Amino acid sequence: MPCSLRAILLRDLILGVLGISAFLIHLGSDLWAVSQYVLSGRYLWAALVLSLLGVASVALQVFSWVWLRADPADLHSSQLSARCLALLHLLQLGYLYRCMQGLQQGLLVWQQEVPSPFDLAYADFLSLDISMLRLFETFLEKTPQLTLVLAIVLQSGQAEYYQWFGICTSFMGISWALLDYHRALRTCLPSKPVLGLGSSVIYFLWNLLLLWPRVLAVALFSALFPRYVALHFLGLWLVLLFWVWCQGTNFMPDPRSEWLYRATVATILYFSWFNVAEGHTRGRATIHLVFLLSDSVLMVVTWVTQSAWLPSGIPLQMLLPVGGTSFLLGLGLRLVYYRWLHPSYPWEPDQVDGTTAFRSLEHYQLPQNRRMDHLAQNFFSKARDEAALPWPGEVNGVL
């Protein structure tokens, strides 16, 4: 095996171990917080943490199980039987099994003197699914948990050691998932190199700096008006769900599971940008940014007009400049990334009756993750009208 390939495989194995460790550490911090809330008599807070954990875990198992059922029967020949897999997912262990399977396949490839092309492609197939599941878990559990903990800290006026630990692990997990997902999309483009260190840092920073003001805005709203935050989330979530439906997503293998995907994407869009359809990414990203910014400004106006102080006595004037500065820095870095670091991908879709047709997995000689390929083509492809120009058009996504 070439030394460069062996080094890359070893790096991926280390990152996989770190990813599983981060997941387990964050899970432990949530259960630690639940036990402390119960011991202190804060049963509502404990119930909210457990509810977020339960909803996210069930959604992850459903996604994992549906994808396994949709994959070709001979692809996962080394897996457990269907009954054992169903039992693992029922016990909420399907995601961890996926992670362990990915590590096992990566270790198998790393130990081979001359890696098999099939084993390499299959390891990549598994890692892409894990990256997608990690992203879903981040926005269904880690980000809401971070918002809840911040709201509790702002309302109580103090942060316990287990809360600080949960905040740190949440930020670490969110940042890891966002960067890992983008790097996974980049691997779906065989003509493009792996995302470099500089691009990774910029992408990581602008996502984190734009996500932080949104989380802070929702946390402040939850601390000041805890009775209305659920109504606020539900109202915006329905609007975002309708928007996702209008874009005609086609990610899952059947219509019923597609609605689960759309509901998950709507939750992601409540906090951050996520592209789900091909075409002009710039226009949709701008609309979404303006929508979230307007909603955050409305919440700020509500805080200022209703109450200038949190229940703990913390003045809002100390927190608003922090959020505004973070937003401006994140927006600037986002412009830098899309102007100089965002890759183009001259992908030409196959046309069948005026629609885009993607080749099924059976038509490939090696395993290829059609789900992530679909998202990568949406994220990196040129708009159709720009691709048809005789001169190089503007890269889709460049601001």
Automatic annotation (TrEMBL):
Compartmental location: Cell membrane; Membrane
Keywords: Apoptosis, Cell membrane, Membrane, Transmembrane, Transmembrane helix
InterPro entries with a match to the protein in the record: XK-rel, XK-related_scramblase
Topology with respect to the bilayer: Multi-pass membrane protein
Chief location category: membrane
GO molecular function: phospholipid scramblase activity
Cell membrane in keyword set: yes
Catalysed reactions, as listed in the record: a 1,2-diacyl-sn-glycero-3-phospho-L-serine(in) = a 1,2-diacyl-sn-glycero-3-phospho-L-serine(out)
Membrane spanning residue stretches: 12-32, 44-68, 161-179, 194-212, 224-244, 259-277, 289-310, 316-337
Source taxon at top rank: Eukaryota
One Pfam short name: XK-related
One GO process term, biological-process aspect: establishment of localization in cell
GO cellular component, one term: plasma membrane
Keyword Membrane among record annotations: yes
Family statement drawn from the similarity comment of this UniProt entry: Belongs to the XK family.
Name of the protein: XK-related protein
Source organism of this protein record: Myotis lucifugus
Record gene name: XKR8
